[in-house]
Amino acid sequence: MTVSPVWWAHDRLMLLDQRLLPTQELERAYTRWEDVADAIRTLVVRGAPAIGVAAAFGVALAARQSPATTFDALLADLETAMKGLAATRPTAANLFWALERMKRGALESRGVPLDQVRTGLLAEAQAIRDEDIAANQAMGALGAALVPPNARILTHCNAGALATAGFGTALGVIRAAHAQGKVGRVWVDETRPVMQGSRLTAWECVREGIPHTLIADVVAASLMARGEVDLIVTGADRIAANGDTANKIGTYSLAVLARHHRVPFYVAAPFSTIDPALPSGEHIPIEERDPAEVRRVGGQQTAPAESPVFNPAFDVTSAALITAIITERGVFRPPYHFA
Ligand code: MRU
Does the C-beta of 248 come closer than 6 Å to ligand 1? Predict the structure, then answer.
Protein backbone atom coordinates (compact mmCIF):
# COMPACT_ATOMS: atom_id res chain seq x y z
CA MET A 1 0.00 0.00 0.00
CA THR A 2 1.33 3.42 -0.93
CA VAL A 3 0.88 6.37 1.38
CA SER A 4 -2.23 8.58 1.23
CA PRO A 5 -2.04 12.23 2.23
CA VAL A 6 -5.82 12.70 2.60
CA TRP A 7 -8.40 10.43 4.26
CA TRP A 8 -11.49 10.44 6.47
CA ALA A 9 -11.36 8.92 9.96
CA HIS A 10 -13.60 9.24 13.04
CA ASP A 11 -15.69 12.10 11.65
CA ARG A 12 -12.64 14.14 10.74
CA LEU A 13 -10.64 14.88 7.62
CA MET A 14 -7.05 13.78 8.09
CA LEU A 15 -4.14 15.34 6.22
CA LEU A 16 -0.49 14.40 6.30
CA ASP A 17 1.31 17.73 6.76
CA GLN A 18 3.52 17.81 3.65
CA ARG A 19 5.32 20.96 4.77
CA LEU A 20 7.18 18.93 7.38
CA LEU A 21 8.34 16.07 5.17
CA PRO A 22 10.82 14.46 4.86
CA THR A 23 11.90 14.95 8.49
CA GLN A 24 8.55 14.69 10.28
CA GLU A 25 5.39 12.66 9.57
CA LEU A 26 2.58 14.60 11.23
CA GLU A 27 -1.12 13.87 10.70
CA ARG A 28 -3.53 16.76 11.26
CA ALA A 29 -7.29 16.46 11.88
CA TYR A 30 -9.87 18.89 10.43
CA THR A 31 -13.50 19.51 11.35
CA ARG A 32 -14.02 22.96 9.77
CA TRP A 33 -13.96 23.85 6.08
CA GLU A 34 -12.22 27.14 6.86
CA ASP A 35 -9.23 25.20 8.23
CA VAL A 36 -9.23 22.91 5.19
CA ALA A 37 -9.06 26.00 2.95
CA ASP A 38 -6.15 27.24 5.01
CA ALA A 39 -4.42 23.85 4.72
CA ILE A 40 -4.73 23.99 0.92
CA ARG A 41 -3.47 27.59 0.77
CA THR A 42 -0.46 26.88 2.98
CA LEU A 43 0.53 23.59 1.25
CA VAL A 44 -0.28 21.20 4.12
CA VAL A 45 -1.94 19.37 1.23
CA ARG A 46 -0.79 20.06 -2.33
CA GLY A 47 -0.77 18.46 -5.78
CA ALA A 48 -3.81 19.04 -7.98
CA PRO A 49 -5.75 15.79 -7.34
CA ALA A 50 -5.07 15.82 -3.58
CA ILE A 51 -6.25 19.44 -3.43
CA GLY A 52 -9.48 18.41 -5.18
CA VAL A 53 -10.09 15.54 -2.75
CA ALA A 54 -9.37 17.72 0.30
CA ALA A 55 -11.75 20.41 -1.01
CA ALA A 56 -14.50 17.82 -1.54
CA PHE A 57 -14.16 16.76 2.10
CA GLY A 58 -14.13 20.46 3.00
CA VAL A 59 -17.61 20.77 1.47
CA ALA A 60 -18.74 17.66 3.37
CA LEU A 61 -17.46 19.29 6.58
CA ALA A 62 -19.28 22.53 5.72
CA ALA A 63 -22.53 20.55 5.47
CA ARG A 64 -21.93 19.12 8.93
CA GLN A 65 -20.97 22.52 10.38
CA SER A 66 -24.08 24.21 9.01
CA PRO A 67 -26.92 24.64 11.54
CA ALA A 68 -29.38 25.01 8.61
CA THR A 69 -32.82 23.48 8.96
CA THR A 70 -33.96 24.12 5.38
CA PHE A 71 -32.37 22.97 2.13
CA ASP A 72 -31.94 26.54 0.85
CA ALA A 73 -30.18 27.65 4.02
CA LEU A 74 -27.86 24.62 3.80
CA LEU A 75 -27.15 25.39 0.15
CA ALA A 76 -26.27 28.99 1.03
CA ASP A 77 -23.77 27.76 3.65
CA LEU A 78 -22.30 25.28 1.16
CA GLU A 79 -21.92 28.03 -1.42
CA THR A 80 -20.01 30.18 1.06
CA ALA A 81 -17.70 27.25 1.79
CA MET A 82 -17.22 26.43 -1.91
CA LYS A 83 -16.33 30.05 -2.62
CA GLY A 84 -13.78 30.03 0.20
CA LEU A 85 -12.27 26.73 -0.91
CA ALA A 86 -12.14 27.86 -4.55
CA ALA A 87 -10.17 30.97 -3.58
CA THR A 88 -7.17 28.98 -2.31
CA ARG A 89 -5.13 27.89 -5.37
CA PRO A 90 -6.12 29.15 -8.82
CA THR A 91 -4.28 26.78 -11.17
CA ALA A 92 -5.27 23.26 -10.07
CA ALA A 93 -8.25 22.24 -12.25
CA ASN A 94 -9.11 19.36 -9.93
CA LEU A 95 -10.06 21.84 -7.21
CA PHE A 96 -12.81 23.42 -9.31
CA TRP A 97 -13.82 20.07 -10.79
CA ALA A 98 -14.31 18.57 -7.31
CA LEU A 99 -16.24 21.60 -6.03
CA GLU A 100 -18.52 21.48 -9.09
CA ARG A 101 -19.17 17.79 -8.50
CA MET A 102 -20.01 18.39 -4.83
CA LYS A 103 -22.33 21.24 -5.81
CA ARG A 104 -24.11 18.99 -8.31
CA GLY A 105 -24.45 16.33 -5.60
CA ALA A 106 -26.01 18.88 -3.26
CA LEU A 107 -28.42 20.24 -5.88
CA GLU A 108 -29.57 16.76 -6.84
CA SER A 109 -30.50 16.04 -3.23
CA ARG A 110 -33.11 18.80 -2.92
CA GLY A 111 -36.15 17.32 -1.19
CA VAL A 112 -34.12 14.69 0.67
CA PRO A 113 -34.02 14.95 4.52
CA LEU A 114 -31.08 17.21 5.50
CA ASP A 115 -29.22 14.57 7.51
CA GLN A 116 -29.22 12.40 4.38
CA VAL A 117 -27.96 15.34 2.30
CA ARG A 118 -25.07 15.63 4.74
CA THR A 119 -24.20 11.91 4.63
CA GLY A 120 -24.63 11.92 0.85
CA LEU A 121 -22.05 14.70 0.50
CA LEU A 122 -19.58 12.79 2.63
CA ALA A 123 -20.14 9.70 0.47
CA GLU A 124 -19.54 11.81 -2.64
CA ALA A 125 -16.20 13.06 -1.25
CA GLN A 126 -15.24 9.47 -0.42
CA ALA A 127 -16.14 8.46 -3.98
CA ILE A 128 -13.96 11.24 -5.42
CA ARG A 129 -11.07 9.94 -3.30
CA ASP A 130 -11.61 6.28 -4.26
CA GLU A 131 -11.98 7.12 -7.96
CA ASP A 132 -8.74 9.11 -7.89
CA ILE A 133 -6.78 6.13 -6.59
CA ALA A 134 -8.37 3.86 -9.23
CA ALA A 135 -7.57 6.40 -11.99
CA ASN A 136 -3.95 6.56 -10.86
CA GLN A 137 -3.63 2.78 -10.93
CA ALA A 138 -5.09 2.70 -14.45
CA MET A 139 -2.64 5.42 -15.56
CA GLY A 140 0.17 3.46 -13.97
CA ALA A 141 -0.64 0.38 -16.03
CA LEU A 142 -1.01 2.36 -19.28
CA GLY A 143 2.07 4.48 -18.65
CA ALA A 144 4.32 1.59 -17.62
CA ALA A 145 3.77 0.07 -21.06
CA LEU A 146 5.57 3.11 -22.55
CA VAL A 147 8.66 2.61 -20.38
CA PRO A 148 11.57 0.73 -21.99
CA PRO A 149 13.63 -1.80 -19.99
CA ASN A 150 16.19 -0.39 -17.56
CA ALA A 151 14.80 3.10 -18.12
CA ARG A 152 16.36 6.25 -16.76
CA ILE A 153 13.36 8.47 -16.06
CA LEU A 154 13.42 12.12 -15.07
CA THR A 155 10.54 13.64 -13.10
CA HIS A 156 9.84 17.09 -11.74
CA CYS A 157 8.03 18.24 -8.60
CA ASN A 158 5.94 15.59 -6.83
CA ALA A 159 3.20 13.90 -8.78
CA GLY A 160 3.24 10.92 -6.48
CA ALA A 161 0.96 9.35 -3.89
CA LEU A 162 1.38 12.54 -1.86
CA ALA A 163 -0.05 14.70 -4.66
CA THR A 164 -3.14 12.52 -5.11
CA ALA A 165 -5.46 10.36 -3.02
CA GLY A 166 -2.79 7.66 -3.40
CA PHE A 167 -0.42 5.94 -5.88
CA GLY A 168 0.27 9.07 -7.93
CA THR A 169 0.15 10.13 -11.57
CA ALA A 170 3.68 10.60 -12.98
CA LEU A 171 5.22 8.80 -10.02
CA GLY A 172 2.40 6.26 -10.31
CA VAL A 173 3.65 5.45 -13.82
CA ILE A 174 7.17 5.11 -12.39
CA ARG A 175 5.85 3.03 -9.47
CA ALA A 176 4.07 0.65 -11.87
CA ALA A 177 7.12 0.43 -14.15
CA HIS A 178 9.30 -0.27 -11.11
CA ALA A 179 6.97 -3.11 -10.08
CA GLN A 180 7.58 -4.55 -13.56
CA GLY A 181 11.34 -4.30 -13.03
CA LYS A 182 11.78 -1.71 -15.76
CA VAL A 183 13.20 1.24 -13.82
CA GLY A 184 16.97 1.60 -13.92
CA ARG A 185 16.98 4.98 -12.19
CA VAL A 186 14.74 7.94 -11.49
CA TRP A 187 16.33 11.37 -11.77
CA VAL A 188 14.49 13.47 -9.19
CA ASP A 189 14.57 17.23 -9.82
CA GLU A 190 14.76 18.97 -6.46
CA THR A 191 12.21 21.52 -7.77
CA ARG A 192 13.04 24.99 -6.48
CA PRO A 193 11.66 26.97 -4.77
CA VAL A 194 9.41 24.73 -2.64
CA MET A 195 11.47 21.54 -3.11
CA GLN A 196 8.61 19.10 -3.75
CA GLY A 197 11.08 16.86 -5.60
CA SER A 198 13.71 16.54 -2.90
CA ARG A 199 11.31 16.68 0.07
CA LEU A 200 8.47 14.54 -1.29
CA THR A 201 9.35 12.55 -4.43
CA ALA A 202 12.69 11.41 -3.00
CA TRP A 203 10.88 10.51 0.25
CA GLU A 204 8.40 8.33 -1.65
CA CYS A 205 11.23 6.67 -3.61
CA VAL A 206 13.15 5.90 -0.42
CA ARG A 207 10.03 4.40 1.21
CA GLU A 208 9.45 2.08 -1.73
CA GLY A 209 12.99 1.24 -2.70
CA ILE A 210 12.73 2.89 -6.11
CA PRO A 211 16.29 3.55 -7.36
CA HIS A 212 16.67 7.30 -7.64
CA THR A 213 19.20 10.10 -7.72
CA LEU A 214 18.41 13.61 -6.62
CA ILE A 215 19.61 16.43 -8.86
CA ALA A 216 19.54 20.21 -8.70
CA ASP A 217 17.11 21.45 -11.36
CA VAL A 218 19.96 22.95 -13.37
CA VAL A 219 21.51 19.49 -13.94
CA ALA A 220 18.75 18.16 -16.23
CA ALA A 221 20.15 19.72 -19.43
CA SER A 222 23.59 18.20 -19.10
CA LEU A 223 22.13 14.78 -18.21
CA MET A 224 20.10 14.86 -21.42
CA ALA A 225 23.14 16.00 -23.42
CA ARG A 226 25.05 12.99 -22.03
CA GLY A 227 22.27 10.65 -23.15
CA GLU A 228 21.39 9.69 -19.60
CA VAL A 229 17.64 10.35 -19.73
CA ASP A 230 15.40 7.91 -21.64
CA LEU A 231 12.13 9.68 -20.89
CA ILE A 232 10.58 12.42 -18.80
CA VAL A 233 7.22 12.09 -17.08
CA THR A 234 5.50 14.83 -15.09
CA GLY A 235 2.06 15.48 -13.67
CA ALA A 236 -0.25 18.37 -14.55
CA ASP A 237 -2.25 21.00 -12.71
CA ARG A 238 -4.49 21.92 -15.60
CA ILE A 239 -4.70 20.73 -19.21
CA ALA A 240 -6.45 22.91 -21.78
CA ALA A 241 -8.67 21.39 -24.49
CA ASN A 242 -5.80 21.51 -27.01
CA GLY A 243 -3.37 19.66 -24.68
CA ASP A 244 -1.40 22.70 -23.45
CA THR A 245 -0.42 21.75 -19.92
CA ALA A 246 0.22 23.79 -16.78
CA ASN A 247 2.49 22.11 -14.27
CA LYS A 248 5.10 23.06 -11.68
CA ILE A 249 7.39 25.89 -12.72
CA GLY A 250 10.34 24.41 -14.60
CA THR A 251 8.30 21.81 -16.48
CA TYR A 252 8.28 23.92 -19.65
CA SER A 253 12.05 24.20 -19.74
CA LEU A 254 12.32 20.41 -19.39
CA ALA A 255 9.95 19.95 -22.35
CA VAL A 256 12.04 22.31 -24.50
CA LEU A 257 15.21 20.46 -23.51
CA ALA A 258 13.54 17.12 -24.20
CA ARG A 259 12.61 18.20 -27.72
CA HIS A 260 16.16 19.38 -28.40
CA HIS A 261 17.64 16.10 -27.18
CA ARG A 262 14.91 13.89 -28.70
CA VAL A 263 13.81 12.57 -25.30
CA PRO A 264 10.10 11.56 -25.04
CA PHE A 265 8.20 13.94 -22.77
CA TYR A 266 5.06 12.46 -21.16
CA VAL A 267 2.38 14.02 -18.98
CA ALA A 268 0.27 11.78 -16.70
CA ALA A 269 -2.99 13.20 -15.36
CA PRO A 270 -6.57 12.12 -14.67
CA PHE A 271 -9.49 13.50 -16.67
CA SER A 272 -10.35 15.70 -13.67
CA THR A 273 -7.26 17.77 -14.57
CA ILE A 274 -8.53 18.48 -18.08
CA ASP A 275 -10.39 21.77 -18.41
CA PRO A 276 -12.43 21.45 -21.61
CA ALA A 277 -13.69 25.04 -21.21
CA LEU A 278 -10.22 26.44 -21.89
CA PRO A 279 -9.27 26.27 -25.58
CA SER A 280 -5.52 26.73 -24.95
CA GLY A 281 -2.89 27.23 -22.29
CA GLU A 282 -2.72 31.01 -22.43
CA HIS A 283 -6.06 31.08 -20.59
CA ILE A 284 -4.80 29.03 -17.63
CA PRO A 285 -4.53 31.20 -14.48
CA ILE A 286 -1.04 30.94 -13.03
CA GLU A 287 -0.64 31.25 -9.29
CA GLU A 288 2.06 33.59 -7.97
CA ARG A 289 3.35 32.78 -4.53
CA ASP A 290 5.09 34.49 -1.64
CA PRO A 291 8.43 36.12 -2.55
CA ALA A 292 9.87 34.63 0.65
CA GLU A 293 9.89 31.21 -1.07
CA VAL A 294 12.59 32.55 -3.42
CA ARG A 295 14.45 34.82 -1.02
CA ARG A 296 15.01 31.96 1.41
CA VAL A 297 16.33 28.42 1.30
CA GLY A 298 15.42 26.17 4.23
CA GLY A 299 14.39 29.17 6.36
CA GLN A 300 17.74 30.87 5.73
CA GLN A 301 17.69 34.20 3.90
CA THR A 302 19.70 33.95 0.68
CA ALA A 303 18.79 37.25 -1.03
CA PRO A 304 18.52 40.88 0.04
CA ALA A 305 15.13 41.49 1.66
CA GLU A 306 14.70 44.45 -0.75
CA SER A 307 15.16 42.42 -3.95
CA PRO A 308 11.95 42.18 -5.94
CA VAL A 309 10.93 38.60 -6.71
CA PHE A 310 8.88 36.96 -9.47
CA ASN A 311 7.57 33.63 -8.16
CA PRO A 312 5.08 31.91 -10.49
CA ALA A 313 4.22 28.45 -9.15
CA PHE A 314 3.46 26.96 -12.57
CA ASP A 315 4.30 27.31 -16.25
CA VAL A 316 2.54 26.15 -19.40
CA THR A 317 4.04 23.60 -21.77
CA SER A 318 2.68 23.78 -25.26
CA ALA A 319 0.94 20.64 -26.50
CA ALA A 320 3.38 20.51 -29.42
CA LEU A 321 6.18 19.60 -26.98
CA ILE A 322 4.28 16.74 -25.32
CA THR A 323 4.86 13.26 -26.75
CA ALA A 324 1.70 11.85 -25.14
CA ILE A 325 -0.74 12.49 -22.29
CA ILE A 326 -1.43 9.43 -20.16
CA THR A 327 -4.91 9.40 -18.62
CA GLU A 328 -7.04 6.72 -16.97
CA ARG A 329 -9.06 6.50 -20.20
CA GLY A 330 -6.11 5.92 -22.50
CA VAL A 331 -2.92 7.43 -23.88
CA PHE A 332 -3.59 10.51 -26.03
CA ARG A 333 -1.19 11.76 -28.70
CA PRO A 334 -1.13 15.03 -30.67
CA PRO A 335 -3.28 16.56 -31.96
CA TYR A 336 -5.08 16.23 -28.63
CA HIS A 337 -8.83 15.62 -28.57
CA PHE A 338 -10.02 14.38 -25.21
CA ALA A 339 -13.26 12.51 -25.60
O1 MRU B 1 2.45 23.59 -5.91
P2 MRU B 1 2.12 22.12 -5.90
O3 MRU B 1 3.05 21.33 -5.06
O4 MRU B 1 0.67 21.87 -5.57
O5 MRU B 1 2.35 21.69 -7.41
C6 MRU B 1 2.15 20.34 -7.76
C7 MRU B 1 2.43 20.02 -9.18
O8 MRU B 1 2.81 20.88 -9.97
C9 MRU B 1 2.13 18.62 -9.63
O10 MRU B 1 3.00 18.22 -10.64
C11 MRU B 1 0.68 18.55 -10.15
O12 MRU B 1 -0.20 19.10 -9.21
C13 MRU B 1 0.28 17.17 -10.46
S14 MRU B 1 0.15 16.18 -9.02
C15 MRU B 1 -0.41 14.64 -9.46
Answer: yes
